[in-house]
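Re: the request from the purification team.
They wanted to know what the chain is likely to look like in 3D before they choose a buffer screen. I agreed to run a prediction and write the result into the notebook, where they can find it.
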Amino acid sequence: MRPHHGLRSLRTAVMMPPTPPPAGQPLVSQGDELTIRTYRYVRVLIVLLTAGLISAVLVEQHTANCLLGSISAYYYTPARGLFTGALIGIGVCLIAVRGENELQDGLLNVAGLFAPMVALVPMHFGAGTPDRPSREAMCIASAHRAPDLRPGNVKEGVFSLVTAGRIDSIRNNTFALLVMVGLGLLVLGVMIVWGRRHPRPGAGQPRVWPWAVTALIGALVWVLYVFAHGFYIENVHFTTAVLMFAAVSLFAVFDGIRTIRLQRAVKRGIAYVVLGAILLTGCGVIMLAGNSAGWDYTTFTAEIWGIGIFLAFWIIQTIDLWNHTSRRTAILAATSRNG
């Protein structure tokens, strides 16, 4: 494919206007109202799960009277249950929310696919040694209320709180995630084949390429885990976190473009574009500046920035589309009123 053809396809996917319903078909039915309510619950649940995740981190910060270098490090504290549960729940909700088109839906699915990996494949950090634990290890031990892991009285058994079981967790969680993704792809593949062979009147054929991209990502994760095990263990957490933020950042930018061009809501669309742009670029600037300065809380600050910007975008968009399941139905509703 030539570069200009790819750019043209991308522009078509982002700018494709909604198709109105056939003549005589109502825009909103009783079934649509139930769909809208479900859609609201899923969207609000993402906000609540994120708030719960931040709350768990704040509780542990108060308990230990210290701050870890990243939110991901709270996997090793008593906040692990809510940390993993919230990210898995957010991932499921992102997959459940249908994008405006295949491109935006694919971005939400990618973010939703990587969120459980961020949760269940814990990050690596320097714990030090039982005799000389790092600041992070001391903070985690304080969160566990383990007084034996204090200066002058360090025991290897207590030190294992922050080191033991990481590799076993990665092996177990990765295998379970790949099984879930594989089964999901199998079911989705059957649905796509069925939909293409038995198309519904007025509905387009299911696209194969989003399924193929997801299958490729799953296959890549499996290959890395099996054939580059050491690289996978040390790098997959950070990589999937970056890709998750990148996906939601691009989703916000594309939604802003559609809002400007299709709804003529310039201010709101610009806000979406700006939020999407500063989400990823802000995280990058914080990481570069903080690492250059040797700041202990660089990753934590970047994660808080990314989560905060994402929440701002998600809340604004949820309010914007409160009475609609998508921007498509919002545009059609406005067109129906004006017509």
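For the purification team: The two ends are 41 Å apart (CA to CA).
Please add any questions underneath this entry.
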